[in-house]
Specification:
heterodimer; A: 213 residues; alpha+beta; DNA polymerase, domain 1; five-stranded mixed β-sheet; 5 strands; globular; B: alpha+beta; Uridine Diphospho-n-acetylenolpyruvylglucosamine Reductase, domain 2; five-stranded antiparallel β-sheet; 12 helices; 2Fe-2S-bd_dom_sf (chain A); 2Fe-2S_ferredoxin-type (chain A)
């Protein structure tokens, strides 16, 4: 710390109130705590990972009022009054949500370090752009870094999840499920829980060597 | 790394924020979206003793057009808000702004980063800085003595240095006239990185399209701030019929008219090669609108 600002070296703390995954947390913390550090260290929500700490890798991506943001590039104090969602909000107990399920089915993860960031990135993006094309998904996936999968399976997982959500929405709107000749869409009318394992793999070579490690 | 300790202040209104900045002096930094500042603080390249958070100020976000056809963008408007602005909020005259947003970082940066923050940060390769210089934007700063308007040509002074006083806050940027034939393009080593070179043009074809009555060409990444290239603009206006040949000639003139730096992102020669490609590409894209 610089000599001309000794008053800041003290453990100056401030009271914060954060809304995380629908719960209000009050905590006393230093202003310099970034949102990701507060989530992990103060709230013990360690699902959100921290990688580069300068906004490049995206491992810390969370939703702020529904939009994907880098939790390392904002101070927790800036998140007061906003709705924060972390990866812990996705699963219902031990039951994965449809996006997580799609990542699993498409082998969209290996070591898993980047996965919470990709999941929250995709949740935020699909909420805004449910009709996203595969090309748009590919561009958004470029926001985050993964050093294992090579991204293709992540793109496919997100694309598949989006297609299923669209199909589910269509069938809800129409009040009744019906087949329209599109084999993927007709499968998509099932909920993710009832899709047999491997069903989502028909369009992608599950046994390809690129994912065999 | 973790940032150095600081005192956090949350501004309630613009007047309060500027008063506080005047009181705190050089020790204070304004934070809006923080997409550049927090990264610099995490690296401890910046160690402000005080942060004044203007992110929650009401009335500083949004787009509106004025009766003269100008577009006003509130300083706290995010890049993503411009990227997703409804067509009637921007109109064909400002589609260049919307389309340029895809070059600004990545989606999770654009949802937090603000137009005013980017301009006040003054990165030499920032898209908003380039657009402001290209389109003669005016920047509205609020200080203890009220508001003043600064022309973009006078706003950028050098690397991360602007005409803003330490106790001033950028509140709005005004793009004074529509630019229906404008485009920005750039090259970066990876998508979302800072541009090695960025190029933007604003073209005014004559009725009938036989030549250009006016043209603007601006480059980023070749100097300490975005620069206009008058030699390339002359080449466009005096060069005859619009088309690939004219654009290639113009781009070659642009490449020879600037003195780009050599650094880790590329040599001066490499940047000139990029300019030759990007200026021509920007012209094509601008005329394709």
């Amino acid at each position: 710390m610089t000599d001309n600002a000794p008053e800041h070296t003290a453990q100056q703390r401030q009271l914060l109130s954060l809304d995380v995954n629908g719960e209000t947390h009050e905590l006393l913390t230093e202003p310099r705590r970034t949102l990701v550090d507060v989530l992990r260290h103060d709230l013990r929500l360690t699902g959100t990972h921290v990688g580069c700490e300068h906004g490049i890798c995206g491992a810390c991506t969370v939703l702020l009022d529904g939009a994907p943001v880098r939790a390392c590039l904002m101070f927790a104090a800036q998140a007061e009054g906003k709705e924060i969602r972390t990866v812990e909000s996705l699963a219902d107990g031990t039951r994965l949500n449809d996006l997580q399920q799609a990542f699993s089915e498409h082998h969209g993860l290996q070591c898993g370090f980047c996965t919470p960031g990709f999941l929250m990135l995709a949740e935020g993006f699909l909420a805004e752009r449910p009709e996203a094309s595969k090309e748009e998904i590919r561009e958004v996936v470029a926001s985050n870094l993964c050093r294992c999968t090579g991204y293709q399976t992540i793109v496919e997982a997100i694309d598949d999840c989006a297609a299923r959500r669209r199909a589910a929405l269509r069938s809800r709107l129409e009040g009744t499920a019906h087949h329209n000749g599109d084999s993927r869409d007709s499968e998509d009318e099932n909920t993710s829980e009832t899709v047999p394992p491997g069903a989502a793999c028909e369009e992608v070579p599950c046994g390809s060597t690129t994912r065999s490690r | 790394m973790k940032p150095a300790a600081f005192t956090y202040h949350r501004a309630r209104d613009v007047e309060g924020a500027t008063r506080l900045l005047a009181e705190l002096g050089d020790e204070a930094k304004v934070i809006a979206g923080g997409q550049s500042l927090v990264a610099m603080m995490n690296f401890r390249l910046a160690r402000p003793g005080h942060l004044v958070d203007i992110g929650g100020l009401a009335g500083l976000a949004g787009l509106r057009t004025d009766s003269g056809g100008g577009l006003h963008i509130g300083a706290l408007t995010t890049h993503h808000a411009v990227e997703t602005a409804p067509a009637d909020a921007l109109g064909p005259g400002f589609a260049v702004l919307r389309d340029a947003m895809r070059w600004v970082g990545h989606l999770p940066i654009r949802t937090r980063g603000t137009v005013g923050g980017s301009l006040a940060h003054g990165d030499a390769t920032a898209e908003w800085c380039l657009l402001a210089v290209l389109l003669d934007a005016e920047l509205v700063a609020h200080g203890p003595d009220g508001e003043r308007r600064i022309a973009a040509a006078e706003f950028f002074h050098g690397y991360y240095t602007t005409a803003l006083e330490p106790d001033e806050i950028l509140v709005e940027v005004v793009f004074p006239r529509p630019a229906p034939h404008a485009a920005l393009t750039e090259f970066a080593e990876r998508q979302g990185d800072f541009a090695t070179v960025s190029a933007a043009v604003d073209l005014e074809p004559a009725d009938g399209g036989g030549h250009f009555t006016a043209a603007r060409v601006a480059l980023g990444g070749v100097d300490a701030m975005p620069v206009r290239v008058p030699e390339a603009e002359d080449a466009l206006v005096s060069g005859g019929a619009p088309g690939p040949e004219l654009y290639a000639r113009t781009a070659a003139v642009a490449a020879e008219s600037v003195d780009p730096p050599s650094d880790g992102n590329g040599s001066a020669h490499y940047r000139r090669v990029l300019i030759r490609t990007l200026v021509a590409r920007a012209c094509e894209e601008a005329m394709a609108r």
